[in-house]
Amino acid sequence: MTMKKTLTLAGSDSSGGAGIQADLKTFQEHGVYGMNALTSIVTMDPDNEWSHGVYPIDVEIVEKQLTTILSVGIDAMKTGMLGSVDIIELGARKIDEFKLETFVLDPVMVCKGEDEVLQPENTDAMREFLLPRATIATPNLFEAGQLAQTGPLKTVDDMKKAAIKIHELGAKNVVIKGGKALVHDKALDLFYDGEAFTLLEKDKLDTTYNHGAGCTFAAAITSNLANGKSVKESVNEAKYFVTAAIKHGWRLNEYVGPVMHGAYNQFGNEN
Ligand SMILES: Nc1ncnc2c1ncn2[C@@H]1O[C@H](COP(=O)(O)OP(=O)(O)O)[C@@H](O)[C@H]1O
Ligand SMILES: Cc1ncc(COP(=O)(O)O)c(C=O)c1O
Ligand SMILES: [Mg+2]
């Protein structure tokens, strides 16, 4: 028995719903073998309203992890939270060195519930080093506005303009997640492959228990690509997967409710 192998270069969410924890759980649900190179550790303070602390890992240690994983070989890779510009440049270098062709860039800039960009200098570095190497980029509404430098996105038309810009910056495909942030009666994402726009629409779920939805979506796309599916098919299936995960999101404590990463396999496709 062999398995397809995936790599996530991302941060640790100590609360378990997002970050590498979401990625590895999602890889498992897709029957691919997940490995991770940790870039940063995120903690939450229970005595200060769950406020986030972000602790980057030394770039040398990140490189050692990548050396381990890439010596084995991978079928697809994703990035999530990247702690520093050095780590972003390292990721780009490794993509080139190992000729990694299947790369999902989830340009994590903010955690839900937090409203400031954690590491603004990383946005420029992602634009320069990672977008040109991405098979697909998966920004949320806010991140797409930052990458495209178009300012806040409010309508589907704004999303289209930003998608074109992000494609011009080098990402071969883009999916902008309207999610809960877009004022619209559906949870609407816009997919663009450089030629045509496709809208992915599901009912908007009335829940705040969606922590880790973005990571789960990108990790599902990565798994589907590793399993040999086309980019469009991978995105479509990931949308079903994440919708089920959000539908079964649950209360971890008074501050956070993670998605249920295994919901799609456990309860089937209800959407
Ligand atoms: N309340 C919701 N109901 C249904 N789908 C949602 C909801 N919130 C987010 N989604 C979907 O979950 C996926 C992740 O999006 P989002 O939560 O916006 O990403 P991020 O976690 O990166 O901010 C997208 O497909 C989005 O449309
Ligand atoms: C390590 C890490 N990565 C990514 C995220 C973003 O998560 P989401 O999937 O909700 O966008 C978070 C949020 O807490 C995080 O802690
Ligand atoms: Mg996200």
Automatic annotation (TrEMBL):
It catalyses: pyridoxal + ATP = pyridoxal 5'-phosphate + ADP + H(+). CDD domains: HMPP_kinase (cd01169). Pfam families: Phos_pyr_kin (PF08543). The keyword Magnesium applies. Residues 13-259 form the Pyridoxamine kinase/Phosphomethylpyrimidine kinase domain. GO terms for cellular component: cytosol. Keywords: ATP-binding, Kinase, Magnesium, Metal-binding, Nucleotide-binding, Transferase. InterPro entries: HMP/HMP-P_kinase_dom (IPR004399), PM/HMP-P_kinase-1 (IPR013749), Ribokinase-like (IPR029056). Gene3D superfamilies: 3.40.1190.20. It is an enzyme of class 2 (transferase). PANTHER family: PHOSPHOMETHYLPYRIMIDINE KINASE, PYRIDOXINE KINASE. NCBIfam families: HMP-P_kinase, PRK12412.1. Belongs to the ThiD family. This is pyridoxal kinase. The gene is thiD.
